[in-house]
Design brief:
This protein is α/β, with parallel strands linked by helices. It is built from 15 helices and nine strands. The chain has a five-stranded parallel beta sheet with strand order 2-5-8-1-9, sandwiched between helices. It has a two-stranded antiparallel ribbon with strand order 3-4.
Length: 290
C-alpha cells in the first residue's frame, strides 16, 4: 500500500499505509483527523488513483441535510407527470409512477452505494455538520445501505472505501468513531516534508528546498491565524523555480510569502519574526556547519 501510494505522488508514513491497507481489507471506514493542510483530503484522492477507483466526494458544511447528502425527489418532474396523467389515470397509479427511480436525484452517499464498481467515498470535514447528520450516517457506515421509504432498502452493490476527514473543530460522537478505524495526521518533520517537496518540485536546488522547508516550519511555529499547508509548501517551491530563485533570503521571503501566508496580520508577523532570522543568516547554518 505504501508503495502504491508513493507511485501516485503520496508519501505515506507507516501508520497511514497500515490503516489504508486494513480499511481496504476489512471494509471499515477510516476517520482521519488532524490540522488543516496536512494531506487528509489528498490521501483519499491518492487512494482513488492508486486503486483505480472513482472518487465520490461529499463536502460537508454547516446545515448539510439528507437531501444534499443522500437523495431527493425531482419535484418538478413529478409535478409534470401528475399534470399529464392525472386526468386519464387514477391517483393510486399516478402516485406509484412518481416515486420511481427515474424521479430520484442521486446525491454522493447514494451514488457510492449504488455504484456497480467499487469507489472511494470521501466525506470531507465531517466536523462541520451536526450530530443529527452523524446519526444519519450510521446506517450507511454500519451496513452500507440506505433506506428510502418509497422504494425500500438500497444495499451496496460493491464495498466502497470510505474516508471521513475532520479538522477536529468539534468532538465527534462515540457511535461514529466505533464504526471507523482511526488515523491522526500531523504536519511532517523537516526530512519528510523535504521528500514531499522534492517529489513535486524536483527541479528545485536541494539546498534551496531544505531552506524553504525550514522556513515553513518556522512559520508554522508562530501564532498565526492559518499555518501554511503542505500543498502551499509545494506551491512555494514551484514558484521559486519559476522565478529562478537560488536562495531563500529575506528579500525572496517578502516578495513571495503571500503564497504560504494568507492573512494580513500574519504577513506582518512572518516578515518581522522570520525575515529577521533570514537576514541574520540564522536559517540553514546547521547544514552549512555540517
Amino acid at each position: 500500500m505504501r508503495e502504491s501510494l508513493g507511485r501516485v505522488g503520496y508519501l505515506a508514513g507507516e501508520s497511514t499505509a497500515l490503516v489504508a491497507y486494513l480499511a481496504s481489507e476489512l471494509g471499515k471506514p477510516v476517520l482521519v483527523e488532524g490540522p488543516a493542510g496536512v494531506g487528509k483530503t489528498e490521501l483519499a484522492k491518492a487512494l482513488s488513483r492508486a486503486t483505480g477507483r472513482k472518487l465520490i466526494r461529499l463536502q460537508c458544511y454547516e446545515g448539510l441535510d439528507e437531501a444534499k447528502a443522500l437523495y431527493e425527489w425531482n419535484y418538478r418532474k413529478q409535478l409534470l407527470r401528475i399534470q399529464t396523467e392525472a386526468s386519464d389515470a387514477g391517483w393510486e397509479r399516478v402516485q406509484d409512477d412518481i416515486f420511481g427511480e427515474e424521479f430520484l436525484l442521486t446525491r454522493p452517499l447514494l451514488a457510492a452505494i449504488e455504484s456497480d464498481d467499487p469507489v472511494v467515498l470521501l466525506i470531507d470535514e465531517i466536523d462541520k455538520t451536526d450530530q443529527e447528520f452523524e446519526a444519519m450516517l450510521l446506517e450507511v457506515l454500519s451496513d452500507f445501505q440506505i433506506s428510502i421509504p418509497e422504494l425500500g432498502v438500497v444495499e451496496a452493490k460493491s464495498m466502497p472505501l470510505v474516508l471521513l476527514t475532520s479538522n477536529n473543530s468539534r468532538e465527534l460522537t462515540e457511535a461514529l468513531k466505533r464504526r471507523c478505524l482511526y488515523l491522526w495526521l500531523d504536519y511532517p518533520d523537516v526530512e519528510r516534508e523535504l521528500e514531499i517537496v522534492r517529489l513535486h518540485a524536483p527541479e528545485l536546488d536541494e539546498e534551496v528546498a531544505r531552506k524553504l522547508v525550514e522556513v515553513v516550519h518556522m512559520v508554522r511555529g508562530l501564532d498565526l491565524k492559518k499555518p501554511p499547508s503542505i500543498a502551499e509548501s509545494i506551491d512555494w517551491a514551484r514558484a521559486l523555480i519559476l522565478l529562478g530563485a537560488d536562495d531563500v533570503d529575506r528579500s525572496v521571503l517578502e516578495r513571495t510569502m503571500s503564497i504560504i501566508v494568507k492573512h494580513r496580520t500574519d504577513l506582518d508577523v512572518v516578515a518581522e519574526r522570520v525575515g529577521v532570522k533570514l537576514q541574520d543568516g540564522l536559517v540553514g547554518r546547521r547544514q552549512q556547519a555540517g
